[in-house]
Amino acid sequence: MKSSLLSFCTLTALLALVASPGFSQGKGVSLNKIIAKVDNYFVLKSDLEQTRQSYAQQNQKAPADCQILESLVVQKVLLAKAEIDSVTVDDKLIDNQMDSRMSYMIQQFGSEKNLVEAYGKSIEALKSELRSEVKEQMLGQRMQTKITDEVKISPNDVRKFFNAIPTDSLPYIPAEVEIGHIVRLAKVTKEQRDELRKRLLGLKERVEKGEDFSKLATEFSEDVGSAQKGGSLGFAKRGQMVPEFEGAALKLKPGEMSDIVESEFGLHLIQLIEVRGAEYHAKHILLRPDYNRLDLTEPRRFLDSLRTMIVADSIKFEKAAKDFSEDKATADAGGVIRDPQTNSSLMPHDQNMDYTLYMTLDTMAVGTISRPLDYRLEDGKSAVRLLYYKRKVAPHTASLKDDYEKIANIVLVNKKNKAIDEWFKKAVSDVYINVDPEYESCRIFGTSKTEGP
């Protein structure tokens, strides 16, 4: 692999920005120009522009256009090789991811109407565009995982790497903190629940009078992933759906509809289509509550009582998080929040941290637990949380004892980087790569034009 190829860390960071929830708003013929081709996959000028804009939106300095273009070409090589190697991603996983991102976007814009007006595209067009993006991103990630899945490191690898660093070149580690939280989601008010139930009962009555369930699901369901398929969720294995949904679905006979079922996702009207061994196929119409109108009174009261118990040492914070936190990503780890970039339990305590979190920690002492704080999850759901300021590590020169996890992560990334480099040496000869003359000075993979077989 030529040295011009992005490092694994830089590639991952760039692809993460491309994968952020959103749609291209680029307008004009020039942005639709194809600037690179990898087998049957294309990179548009709008792709490059969108990636650059993603940096600006996150207040980060964008890399040079050539570096961004190379990352986009790398993504297309991953896709082309996934096709050659028959690597796939289950449609249900794609739909779930698309549904999550679409819901996030709707929450950010306040309503579907606002989203349509902002992008000048219909919901169906946005869904189609987003699904294609999500599928490509997940395939690329699956290929990266396949390439590096067997990469392992040993403690000896970590020691050798650290001992090879000259003493005067050891990195300086800024202040870091380890924090945990216990999250309780806002609850649907009785008024909202009654409103949603009334709407769903009206839809159920229309089906009972002869209207088609699938058509009503397409028109009214707020599960954007399944709505475009008439509410169909495809075949699911037992245990795959949330218990409330699965329990209600499996009580039905094929063709029957359920009563109103409430789960963490909202209120459902379910129709069972078929049971096949350990799998079942169901459709649903989902109505979600307005997350800006949810009731935070009960979660605040619950967490306030739980905090009193933790402070009195009646229960340890870690056990309380495992037993009561509704943040699935952290509950099993005792509530510890991990840095999304490094997966470390320690994260830099600086102004790059979420502003609200940074200011809250600034008022707390190590070892203390906050009062219940309003919180919004990444998917837009309202919640309340307790923060536990577990520990703070002062700025220091890196040492193997204190920073083993970080150093091990660097060694692992370097080894994965090498595995990807070796993979790309072979992969670029299996695919056709052509870059527009406008960007030939970029020297993608060390050359302006690469042609495979």
Structure, explained:
There is one protein chain. The chain has 453 residues and is an alpha+beta fold. The chain folds into three domains: 8-152 and 406-450, Porin chaperone SurA, peptide-binding domain (Triger factor/SurA peptide-binding fold); 175-187 and 293-394, Chitinase A, domain 3; 190-288, Chitinase A, domain 3 (Roll), CATH 3.10.50.40. It has 16 helices and 14 strands. The chain has helices at residues 8-18, 45-57, 65-84, 91-109, 112-119, 123-148, 155-163, 190-208, 213-220, 224-227, 243-249, 297-311, 317-324, 328-331, 355-362, 404-427, and strands at 34-38, 41-44, 172-173, 176-185, 232-237, 261-263, 266-276, 279-287, 347-348, 373-376, 382-393, 396-397, 433-435, 449-450. A four-stranded antiparallel beta sheet has the order 2-1-13-14. Strands 9-4-11-10 form a four-stranded antiparallel beta sheet. The chain has a four-stranded antiparallel beta sheet with strand order 5-8-7-6. β1 (34-38) and β2 form a beta hairpin. α2 crosses α3 (65-84), α4 (91-109) packs across α6 and α7 crosses α16. The two termini are 18 Å apart. Pfam families: Rotamase. GO terms for molecular function: peptidyl-prolyl cis-trans isomerase activity. Residues 174-274, 277-374 form the PpiC domain. This is Peptidylprolyl isomerase. It comes from Larkinella bovis.
